[in-house]
Amino acid sequence: MTTGLTLLVLRFAFLAVLWLFVFVIVFALRSDLFGQRVRTIPTDPKAGASAPTTPTAPAAAASAPASAGAFTELIGQSGGAQQQPAPSGVATRLVITEGSREGIEMPLGGGPITIGRSSESNVVIRDDYTSTHHARLDLRAEGWVLSDLESTNGTFVNGQKVTGPVTVAERTPITIGTTTFELRR
């Protein structure tokens, strides 16, 4: 009798482990496809000013234009901070020159711009060769600086793989996955 009871307990334990494994895989796939959840920092009513916040994915997706499709224009949005305009003499637009959304243009603004497959990115590229958080563009005194965020397939500027922060000149091709774009005035 104990052998039958032991076998029954082992069967249920094995079944529970299999279901746990399935849930872990589904969660990993969901986070890879849709990105991690964004937490907002609550405002402090005593301080009188709001603390910095990050836009949530639904709010960011709601502001995206329907015509962008694979590329989502969310550039320069921050959760309450004022957008600073780009200084004169610097690129103000991002133009897709190759890929599924060739010809789409987006204004750059003056803040950091994240590029990746995640819906939390400022520029969303729906591409199998693009990492969830792939690259970042920062506006500095010397111009726009591109940094690869340890992506799987790499970021390329004018055909060269980015290994550290690189200042990107205007009309220099930047390739992420199967999409190529340029910074223009």
TrEMBL record:
Transmembrane portions of the chain: 6-29
InterPro entries, per database record: Cell_Proc_Reg/RNA_Proc, FHA_dom, SMAD_FHA_dom_sf, YscD_cytoplasmic_dom
Family annotation (SUPFAM superfamilies): SMAD/FHA domain (SSF49879)
Low complexity: bias regions: 47-62
Region listing for Disordered, in residue ranges: 42-62
Domain of life, per lineage: Bacteria
Pfam families in the cross-refs: Yop-YscD_cpl
Keyword tags: Membrane, Phosphoprotein, Transmembrane, Transmembrane helix
Domain FHA: 113-162
PROSITE patterns: FHA_DOMAIN
PANTHER family linked to this entry: NUCLEAR INHIBITOR OF PROTEIN PHOSPHATASE-1
Name this polypeptide is given: FHA domain-containing protein
